[in-house]
# Entry
Amino acid sequence: MNLDFSAIADSIPYILKGIGVTLEIAAFACVFGFILGVLLSLIKLSGIKPLQWLADFYTSVFRGTPLVLQLIIIYMGIPQMFPSIDISPMPAAILAFSLNSAAYISEIIRGGIMAVDKGQSEAAQALGVSYTSMMKDIILPQALKNIIPALMNEFISLTKESAIVTVIGALDIMRRAYIVGGATFHYIEPLLVAGLIYYIIVLILSYAGKLVEKRMRIGD
# Structure
């Protein structure tokens, strides 16, 4: 098999433009997923059985079904159920990835909270600190320090998995590589370029995660 990258050289800038779309999806999904994940983790630890059951059910559904299925259901299902709503690929992708990520992040945060010494919460309760203040000012800050590597791994996973938005037409890195392949009849070369771009992004994010983790250890 002969590879001819010169045939797609002029199209590489077009593929590179997909980096912004890929990172935008991953970043928004990580932020929204983190917010919802915190709420889910607190519900799971609340002791309120009906809410705990709902949170566990949510987590099991989004962790137990393929992300691509969730993406397609949101993209195609929302307009079908609500004809007045026309959802475009980007909002559908961000919504699907946020809901999916929240299920995983909630378990990460729950584990981080449970890893905090129980003496911290007992001391706070003895001093009359409210549950909300205790979580916000004492427990969650300590838990977050312990789960930074896991959260960074989740962001990296979101970045790689965002390639599936190709199925709904979002112009991310992978979709643009497909378009270039169809236009030039050279399919392997643009996919290899896309793979290299993803690899470099993951290397950069992994390095950034190690720097953040190192700084937090120094801060301790």
The two ends are 54 Å apart (CA to CA). Residues 188-219 form the longest helix (32 residues).
